[in-house]
């Protein structure tokens, strides 16, 4: 029986796939999408044995109707409405570095207001990525002192940035 099914499926494909495909391309203009519609149409025909038992012309008319409904359903689907077909893949956006440059200049200027001790700790922590333990070891000062300088340095940095128009 499985060999018989394969033979019948092959006959169904041979008899109807090309005309249904041309019909779908005529409806949509989409050659690649037509393949999917034809596959779904033939699958539905395969699942409906009464269609296969009918006259080939009647079966093909049924398949044209099914294909048309599949095309309409696809056009109405939410997925289709969100997709935008383009001829070429868009280039990836390159972020303008101007804002980053101005931000860096603003931060550098605000860091200049801090005392050397506070600036050294803030820069090592936030730009160097060091922990308070690592900063304390590098500078040869107690960890508590690093935490205190970091706290007061960030507070002064926030005030300096607010004076320059940066708000929270």
From TrEMBL:
Record keyword DNA-binding present: yes
Coiled coil: none
GO molecular function: DNA binding; sigma factor activity
Lineage: Bacteria, Bacillati, Actinomycetota, Actinomycetes, Micrococcales
Name the record gives this protein: RNA polymerase sigma factor
Recorded family membership: Belongs to the sigma-70 factor family. ECF subfamily.
GO BP, sorted A to Z: DNA-templated transcription initiation
RNA polymerase sigma-70 region domain span: 12-79, 110-158
Keywords: DNA-binding, Sigma factor, Transcription, Transcription regulation
């Amino acid at each position: 029986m499985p060999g018989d099914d394969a033979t019948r499926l092959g006959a169904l494909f041979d008899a109807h796939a090309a005309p249904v495909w041309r019909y779908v391309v005529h409806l949509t203009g989409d050659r690649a999408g037509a393949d999917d519609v034809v596959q779904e149409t033939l699958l539905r025909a395969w699942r409906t044995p009464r269609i296969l038992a009918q006259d080939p012309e009647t079966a093909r008319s049924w398949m044209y109707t099914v294909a048309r409904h599949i095309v309409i359903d696809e056009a109405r689907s939410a997925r289709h409405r969100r997709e935008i077909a383009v001829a070429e893949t868009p280039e990836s956006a390159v972020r303008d570095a101007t804002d980053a440059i101005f931000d860096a200049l603003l931060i550098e200027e605000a860091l200049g207001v801090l005392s050397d001790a506070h600036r050294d700790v803030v820069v090592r922590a936030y730009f160097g990525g060091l922990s308070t333990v690592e900063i304390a070891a590098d500078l040869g000062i107690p960890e508590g002192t690093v935490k205190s300088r970091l706290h007061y340095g960030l507070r002064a940095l926030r005030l300096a940035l607010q004076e320059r128009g940066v708000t929270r």
